[in-house]
Amino acid sequence: MKGAVFTEFIEFVEESYGFDTADVMLEPDENSDKIYTQAGNYPFEELVALVLSVHETEKVELEEILFKFGRYLFGKLIRMAPFLISDSNSTIEVISKVDTYIHIEVKKLYPEAELPKFHVLKIEGVEYLEIEYVSEKRLEILAKGLMMGASDYFKESIDVFYEVVNEEPYTVIFKVRKIG
Ligand code: HEM
Fold first, then answer.
1. At what angle do helices 3-17 and 62-80 cross, to 10 degrees?
2. Cα of 101 to ligand 1 centre, how many Å?
3. What share of the chain is helix, strand, coil (3-state, %, to 5)?
């Protein structure tokens, strides 16, 4: 997984849970020296270990950490590559373009990125979207957070409902509605 995701996660933990929790999370162990650079690439399992460390130190649910991180991450990603959404004017539009534009450009910039698949099932203007997420990483909660982050960016309110519809390949259907 991209080093930028790790460095953003570390900043997120420092801001949301404090430096002590971040220090505990970054103590080197037998599996990793826990040193991350933006340009590097690291096993996905290492990110999982960092999330688990925060979960144990802070006694907060894994889902809550991943959701909040996704929400935080969207703005950070856009600051790194604003052109990715310069043609979009709404949350629904951005989410509908993740697979057909945004992640395609990400892959050009970072060929080693491992990206999920999204497939639009239904779209009603800028009001409603049904979209399928397929990924062995099972990060639908991060995806929900990223969607909320997009709605923060556009100063809109959305309601996101999702359900797991298949285990192999792991598939989740999202229903996203603009509510304000
Ligand atoms: C609402 C919009 C977005 C959604 C729902 C979304 C969803 C996701 C998810 C769920 C992952 C985790 C990998 C997986 O599940 O298999 C991911 C990875 C990633 N996404 Fe997006 N994404 C969005 C927008 C963006 C934007 C704007 C960027 C701009 C740079 C971006 C860049 C990346 C990168 C770099 C990764 C990590 C790939 C890796 O480390 O190998 N995404 N995305």
1. 120
2. 12
3. 50, 20, 30
Q: Which of 97, 98, 114, 158 to mutate to test the pocket of ligand 1 (most atoms within 8 A of CB)?
A: 98
Regarding the beta carbon of 123 and ligand 1, being less than 6 Å apart is answered no
Tens digits of residue pLDDT in 127-175: 999 999 999 999 999 999 999 999 999 999 999 999 999 999 999 999 9
Per-residue pLDDT at 125: 94
Q: ∠ CA 12-114-65 to the nearest 5 degrees?
A: 25
Which among 158, 118, 116, 113 is positioned nearest to 138, based on CA atoms? 116
* pTM for the model: 0.96
CATH architecture of 88-178: Alpha-Beta Complex (3.90)
Instruction: Name the residue ranges covered by the structural domains of the chain.
Output: 3-60, 88-178
Residue 121 amino acid letter: L
